[in-house]
Amino acid sequence: MRGPTLPARIFFRVIRGIKSTFGVDSYLKNEDRRILEQVIFPYFLNENDFQNVLFVGCHWYTKGYNKWFEEKKKNYWTIEIHPSRKRYGAKQHIIDGMQNICCHFSPSSLDLIMCNGVFGWGLDARSDVEQAFRESFVCLRDGGVLVVGWDDIDERRPFPFDRCRSLQKFQPFVFPPLARSRYVTDTPYAHTYDFFVKRGTPTVGG
Ligand SMILES: C[S@@+](CC[C@H](N)C(=O)[O-])C[C@H]1O[C@@H](n2cnc3c(N)ncnc32)[C@H](O)[C@@H]1O
What we know:
Elements: H1 6-21, H2 31-46, E1 52-56, H3 63-71, E2 75-80, E3 92-95, E4 110-116, H4 126-139, E5 140-151, E6 171-172, E7 182-184, E8 191-197
Parallel strand pairs: 1-2, 1-4, 2-3, 4-5
Antiparallel strand pairs: 5-8, 6-8, 7-8
S-adenosylmethionine is lined by residues 56-59, 62, 79-82, 85, 97-99, 116-118, 121-123, 128.
């Protein structure tokens, strides 16, 4: 699938720059964004149980999300591996890979981790992917949720997603607005949202 031509990319970048000068954020318009922005975000924004939030991977089209979460008084953090993308990050931004989140967050301190479009878009090496989800499990509280959005096409699937061992520690989370724990969007790249919940091991006699 061919993307926009170079002149078109430059044109849109200039437009975004002008909009940004006037404090107007830009967004991507497609079906997987509609689900993310109009179905997934509103649920978590309105649920008081999800206060401590980490969003992984920042780009020009995610900058506007910062305001949505910050204005709702969430303790909202972003993490992005490329230092230059700090400009798209939240007020509380970390420059690092998701595989190192245990260096930045205490165990059981997060309510929600959203990792959209990162698996297969830089988070590719098997060991990094396993570590990223293993550390997510550690940093989430009992009942905390991990959302992973990924493209189910060969070019963007470093290895079969369902074979990711560290995700097996989680249980599927039936996301109430969609009434399922996996939702495949109607996109040419089959962008898929998977919802996981951390359920601690019950203590003996508990
Ligand atoms: C396709 S963009 C997705 C941006 C955003 N998360 C979204 O909802 O679309 C992928 C971003 O993830 C970043 N990224 C790749 N590997 C990463 C990692 N291991 N940890 C954190 N960010 C990473 C890339 O630098 C890039 O900015």
